[in-house]
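[Automated response] Your request has been received and processed.

Submitted sequence:
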Amino acid sequence: MRIACPSCSAHFDVPDDAIPEEGRKLRCSQCKHKWHQLPIAENNKLAFEDETEELPDPLETDIELTGNIPIPTSEEIIETSQKRRLNLPWVPITIFVVLVLAISASLNWRAEAVKQYPPIAIVYDAIGLHVPVKGENLVLKNIGAWRNNEQFMEILLVQGEIYNPTELVQAVPIIQGTEIDATGRQLQTEFFTPEAKTLLPDETIKFEFQKPFPDENTVKLLVTFSDQDRGGDSGY
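Generated structure:
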């Protein structure tokens, strides 16, 4: 009798009486597969029962359905959607880009920022980013102001000195005089361009300018350097 392994199809010759009618267990010497061999039928077809564990058909697997599946509320759906939006990668990226742009703008336009809001210069100095101010290395001293009447016209006469205490040649900026009343309110501001454009180290120059028709409420004159650029005129 010739039989074949149902796993690897290896053929073996066994005696006819080796397989009883009820069959017997056999083991393939090639692949070690075990099966239950039945006698070969008269039509010479091989008959056997494979003892391999039968696996369930995935297409026929039953899925148990229950009616207790929770349905989320609209509030839970909105909350979940908000959490997903907050966890999106573009959120930290957007924050980073905004911070970079803000820092870049504050550095590139810090001179304009100090011009618009002078106290912020202290912040830049604290982080080592000093913003140069026109005339910061020069000294205004011996400032005086008087009211004079010339040809029936009242004039405010201003005199003073500009001193360069540094060891470098310094540019002389425009001078501005601001009239202030008794309450500290600024009234009028006039500008004067000194004739000298530069000052040598340890050099002092005098300046004088007249302000016609000063405000009658003026009690004090504040003289400082202006951040304006010098023009072609040389003063009054």
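Summary generated for your ticket: Residues 58-67 have pLDDT under 50 and may be disordered. The helical segments are 74-86, 90-108, 110-116, 121-126.
If you did not submit this request, please reply to this message.
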